[in-house]
């Protein structure tokens, strides 16, 4: 009953799409209402850490219904597997990987108490921020170079394709590259959705996997193109 009253109040307040959410309770009520309209079984809806999402949206200047609707409308929610929050975070980071560090900042500030669960979670005291930061820098460079490779050799694929091990298999038909890409992908999933900090061994493995793939990719470009790619990546880092 309390949630319904809150939903009604939120509907009235955010009918002005440019008005930002005041707190994560408003955000959760808004999300519940939106996701309910896309599913026949509301019992399947598991919200996830709306408090963390609220902080992330606020830091990213995405904390308005109008902005959030853009992502929600693109998502085919798989509620039997993922929380609402997880799916939205994935979509935002998929659309703009430069927000990854902003997400980590939001996640690292969270307490261990999940307001949507009775359990205590081992959310982040990110002691390994430096190592994770180095991984993210390399991961951003990796994404940038892959997209440049696609633009040069496979422009028919387009600019907005999601970089996955399956895509790399189609591009290179190389099991070693795909296996390295899976290491990178698994660490990214662990960082975004995991309750524990990835250990240094896994971070180092992922960084090595990125470096190995990058060396293969760089061999496909001229020295001038490599320099241009590196300068482009420096610009991305400066804007983070």
TrEMBL record:
Protein name per Swiss-Prot or TrEMBL: RiboL-PSP-HEPN domain-containing protein
Top-level taxon of origin: Bacteria
